[in-house]
Amino acid sequence: MKRFAILCNFILLCSFYSGLNAQQIQSAPKDSIPIETLLSFVETNTPYRIYADIDSSFMVVIRDNDVPSVLLLQNALAGSPYHVSLYHNNLFILKGEALKTRLSPLLTNRAQTQGTMVENQIQTERIEKTAFANSENLIYSVGDPYRKDIPGEITLKGKVIDSKTRGPLPGVNIVLKEPHTTAVTDINGNYVIKLPSGRIQLDLSGFNIKESRRQLMVYDDETFNIEIIEDIYELDEVTIIAQRTDNVRSIQLGAEKLQIAKIKNIPAAFGEVDILRVIQSLPGVKTVGEASTGYNVRGGATDQNLILLNDGTIYNPNHLFGLFSAIGSDMVKEVVLYKSSIPAQYGGRVSSVLDITGKEANKEKFTGSAGLGLVTSQLTLEIPVIKERTSVLVSGRTTYSDWILKQLPEKSGYSNGTAGFYDMGTVISHRIDEKNTLNVYGYYSRDRFEFSANQQYAYNNLNASAKWKRVFNDKLFGTFAAGYDHYDYKNTDTMNEAAAYALSFDINQLFVKADFIYDWDKHQLNFGFKSMLYTISPGNYEPVGENSLVALNRLQKENALESALYIEDQWNITPKLSTTAGIRFSMFNALGPRDYYRYNPDMLPYESTIIDSLHANAGQVSKTYIGPEFRLSARYILADNLSAKAGFNTMRQYIHKLSNTVIMSPTDTWKLSDANIRPQKGWQAATGLYYNAPKKVWLASVEVYYKEMNDYLDYRSGARILMNPHIETDVINTEGYAYGVELSLKKEVGKLNGWASYTYSRTFLRQSDKLITRPVNNGDWYPTDYDKPHDFKLTGNYKFTQRYSCSVNIDYSTGRPATIPAGKYYNPTLNAIQVFYSDRNAHRIPDYFRTDLSFNIEPSHKLTLLTHSSISFGVYNLTGRQNVYSIYYLSENGKIQGYKLSVFGTPIPFVTYNIKF
Amino acid sequence: MNAKIVSSLLILTLLATACVSEYNPVLPSDDKKILFVDGSIIENTDVLFRISQSFSLNEDTVPEESFVNNASLTIIGSNGYKSPAAINEGKGTYRIPTGALDDDVEYGIQIEYDGDTYQSALSKPLHTPEIDSISWTQPDSIGTVFFHVSTHDNTGAGTRFFMWNYTEDWEIKSVYPTAIFYRAEADTFYVDWSLPYYYCWRKNESGTFLIGSTESLRENKLVNKQLYEQGSEDDRFSELYSVIVTQRAISKDAYEYYQSIKKQNEDMDGLFTPQPSEITGNITCITEPSKKVIGYVETVKNRSQKRIFVYPEQLRRPVVYSDCDPLFLTNGKLPEPGQYAYFYKMGWRPAEIDSESYAYHGIIIPSEWALSHCTDCRDNGGTKNKPDFWPNWHW
Asked: Which residues 6+ apart lie within 8 Å of A360 measured at CB?
């Protein structure tokens, strides 16, 4: 109906019917000819009827060998105030702009549904260098169309920005189909692409945008800035794919990029969209159990993952014993997990890097969102301060979680507790000018829980950083950042007044970094440095209350400087072959003031093998570790939709988590390398095949990896981890290896979308140090706690209509290894049977299987509404399977009884209500 | 409206989500038997050492063959001292009298068994400080009772690690003082005015390692360190309760050993449980070092003990309901033949002290009956073994 009405108006405006169709012109006119002549020529030689409204005749330029076509007309009228529109077999030539904007979306939609590229409406628009091209349907004229010698090849460069936030969009693919040419925007949204002159269409795709196109008439080397319009239909975001850059064409292996807006509909425990839980649904990422957001990447330990939030390191990403991740999803724009090819700009952990980028607020108008869930509530506000220049995002989340604790088993010791947490984040973004932007980030999270009035635990994360991005020139971009990261905990126990104590730990980290990107022909150079100054208080044990006899004990602080210098070259050798070669030199200086011991080098460190006591003064370096890390990868395109990649990485890690539990626990502390604790080292080699089905309906990949780790810290029997002034006497260096194959299949478009992956992987550790008299499992290889060979995960979404959709999660894995008693003996003193343990991880707990289901309803998505709300509800662990978290044995009433503990042993229904304004 | 949805679902969610259930898979049994040695060397005491072998996880009770009775156990000293071999008393128990111990000599034990020689690490005798007090508190009305120990050692020479065990004795009584008893084999009654099953005594020994440390404290002093707790409704506190706590100094190494054993047997049920690992103690097989032995043998000069009594009126106890309603059988009439035998078989007993009024031609006819455990304290786990030290006069 609506379309018809517009059409009527349209025809009424056509006041002039050109009678020129009677003239017979057989050959194409040359060079400058009157417009009427051209119209006549086209009408005669095509099936089109032409309706033109031309004020006064003018001359148009056409090129040689042009066949009479709509394109010919459109080319000829480029730069003139006239527009060419096509409706069925009618061509309308009109002046002015009133029609095009109203007509275009409708016609465009029709064109897309038909899958053809009909030039429904053809017009060109000259675009200023500083303006941004934002229409799919306009044809932008770039360069001087009247220039005499139009070059055959043209270099187009420019910037791609988000129309809403006005912020640059990195990682946008710009593709010319024929001849196939691509460019990707850098972190500042800039791109450079070489194109043939004339009429072209650039297809734009990427993580943050709806796929779209820009049509150009290119005449000259020029700047062409692009603005990408945000998709206004909220429900289009109900695709839950972890969209990646074109996996076939990118050079990286094992990189997973997630856009938070796209994962909001994945069912989650308690209905919370949880970044770390989603990470755990990716191939190659495992976890020991549901009570943990600590994860293991390709056989690495939980402390071998670097978690960065806006460049700041997050040391404890958990809320509530690991049931939630501490970073609210509403303040996050995107998350990238590097599990194999880790770019040289990152370092400091052996296994993986999780780079979380905060969302920048809308700079145009005030918006916000609020969510109400069973466990938490959150509020996010996006406030423009100076239009198009400065905006502030604030996001906060808090909980009412005590009731969950009541659900935990009585024996876990938590059921009588109370707990609370909150977290908040802010992003201030300011565009100084065209070339400079400044962002300031802040993040704080706090947890507290009480097992009883006498036992209290609390921990805090605090991060603050500033980042300045600068475009030096067309080829050189720089990012400079500085910040402060902090984590602390304090546990208080006042059960016994005379022994009441508080135990605390904190880690502080100051960092500065600079990263540069330099474009140089077929090369893209990334280089920069990072320097971090650590200060750790490994433990303070203090009396609480007047009657406490506890002696104040402060372990001496640890200080260290970690610095790294890197350079990496991405070289597109041929269109098919690209390589990345990087080297990162990292240096670690353990700094004084500190007293430390030297041990007999022929024996394991024990208090009895100390041979010397040494002292380093303030600022003095007590130990330096230095070494290169190599980051190599290559991609070769085998066929249009098929590529092969290979990579090799080495990594070094100078900070170690001290914990002898299998998951992240509230008393974990971190230890820096020093004269007696060597850095961890690891390398990984990986290769893979990547295939995209035509039109990217299916994306398939297979990756194989092998990795080794050295000097990973394990604990001696009965190790004392807290308040230990010389931890080296309680740890043992372990070596490990891991291998696996990851198969992944994705469907990114259509009513049914999602991903499925299957992983077969193994990971083993060994205590091979000759000095160990009685190594674990006699020095043989033993599986790690998270060695789960078979792993199948499926995350799918089905859209019934734009408003209703349904998501499902399926997770199956082999049960994790567990250490079970080797036998029993009778203890006559206690009149009880007791157990003893021998080989580590010789048994396995039963397999894990879980299905979650959720429904998402958007009550209305009318654009005119002030607020948009949505409801998600569903069930976590639909089948109610009592997945075993751990098995254990207790000596009770003189007998041994085995138990299995399930964390979420029943179906858990959830509902969340979200509102956007 | 949305708040309503949330709250109603909240209620739905208040189903237990987590659970613990028993789990007894058939586990591979390790054929390798390892030796377990229990006991310590205490000056001037007839000490007992117990030697046994490990057995399979799939065994529910202690197999008789796990007791090692054919070993030879001696106490050795760093000065070359070697005691005569201990006497085996069966059930893997070895008794050996220790004489005076020299403070400057390190002592240990040596075991010859199955062709191998095992030896504990030698250690000097430790001195145990006196227990300052054993105390108890009941913070909540009719709530749990907590027992504490306090001790200190100012000598500066003593260890900062302690181990305790305790023996509880308590008196219980049946609901009905009863003097009339049925003799089932003769279908007759007899009277015993001593009320033999009215009062009984129960006994319990600590079933877990109780250890403590002053390592992190300014002084070598423990104040009200909690030893154990007990609900006040327990029959321990019904008549008279007594506990004797024995304290023993242990070394730091032994403390860590007991702590590991305790963790691996009692504290494996949390979410943040450390991985269990091999624990051995201080005994090694010197002829074949790869053979594993569990046990920690230490030498102490003395132990210290303290006893306290707790009277029921000192506590606030909940009302404990019993199922002891009496049954009035005969109302002074003669019973039907076989009626007493039938009631006796069904678990009922006479529950009277004075039945003279119901005597009929000299025959006792008890009218009031009650269930056995209401008239006989032995049915509630008691014995007639009244402790020597018990302050009450009755038996």
From this structure: A165, A167, A333, A391, A393, A427, A429, A439
Chain B positions touching A323 (Cβ under 8 A) are none
Each residue's pLDDT tens digit, A603-616: 889 888 999 999 99
Which of A549, A665, A884 lies at the smallest CB-CB distance from B218? A549
- Taking a C-beta distance cutoff of 8 angstroms, is the pair A675, A596 a contact? yes
Candidates B153, B266, B147, B279; CA nearest to B209 is B266
> Which residue from A374, A409, A819 is facing B276, i.e. has the nearest CB?
A819
Q: Strand B161-173 relative to strand B199-205: parallel, antiparallel, unpaired?
A: antiparallel
A400 contact partners, CB below 8 Å, separation of at least 6: A375, A376, A377
State the Cα angle at A860 between A855 and A862, rounded to 5°: 145
Which contiguous run of DSSP H or E holds residue B9?
Answer: helix B2-13
Return the amino acid letter for B165. Answer: N
Distance from CA of A563 to the nearest CA of B (A): 34
Amino acid A233: pLDDT = 36
Beta-bridge mates of residue A634: A579, A646
Report how far residue A467's alpha carbon sits from residue A438's, in angstroms, rounded to the nearest whole number.
6
Q: Which two tokens stand for residue A179?
A: 């001849």
Report phi then psi at A180, rounded to 5: -65, 115
Amino acid identity at B140: D
Q: Do B224 and A496 touch (CB under 8 A)?
A: yes
Could you give the dihedral angle defined by the CA atoms of residues B309, B313, B316 and B319, in that order, rounded to the nearest 10 degrees? 110
Q: Whole-angstrom Cα distance, residue A869 to residue A858?
A: 6
Report whether A200 contacts A124 (CB < 8 A). Answer: no
Tokens of A580: 């990345």
B24 CB neighbours in chain A (<8 A) are 897-898
Contact A837 B279 (CB under 8 A): yes
User: Which tens digit of pLDDT belongs to each residue from A422-438?
Assistant: 999 999 999 998 889 99
Q: What are the structure tokens assigned to A724, written together? A: 């230990």
- Cα A741 to chain centroid distance, Å, stands at 22
Give the CA distances from residue A155 to residues A599, B10, B325, in Å, rounded to whole numbers and listed in that order: 65, 61, 103
Dihedral through CA A683, CA A687, CA A692, CA A693, nearest 10?
-140
Q: Which residue has the tokens 């050079």?
A: A251
What residues in B contact A718, CB-CB < 8 Å? 256-257, 259-260, 277, 279
Pairing state of beta strands A782-783 and A296-297? Answer: unpaired
A572-581 tens-digit pLDDT: 998 889 999 9
Token pair 């008299």 is found at A773
pLDDT attached to residue A515: 96
State the complex-level ipTM: 0.86
Looking at the predicted structure, is the pLDDT value of residue A408 above 70?
no
Q: What is the mean pLDDT of residues B64-76?
A: 94
CB A501 within 8 A of CB A549: no
Sequence-distant (6+) residues with CB within 8 A of A231 are: A209, A210, A237
Contact indicator for A41, A28 with CB cutoff of 8 Å: yes
Inter-chain contacts counted by CB atoms under 8 A, chains A and B? 253
| Torsions phi, psi for B15 (to 5 deg) | -90, 150
Predicted local distance difference test score (pLDDT) of residue A406: 62
Q: Left if phi > 0, otherwise alpha if psi is -120 to 50, otherwise beta: which for A105?
A: alpha
User: In which region does residue A198 sit, left (phi positive, over 0), alpha (psi from -120 to 50) or beta (all else)?
Assistant: left
In the block, which residue shows the tokens 């209905």?
A271
Classify the phi-psi angles of A709: left when phi > 0, otherwise alpha if psi is within -120 to 50, otherwise beta. beta
Dihedral in degrees, nearest 10, Cα atoms A838, A841, A847, A852 = 120
Considering all CA atoms of chain A, what is the largest pairwise distance in Å, rounded to the nearest integer? 118
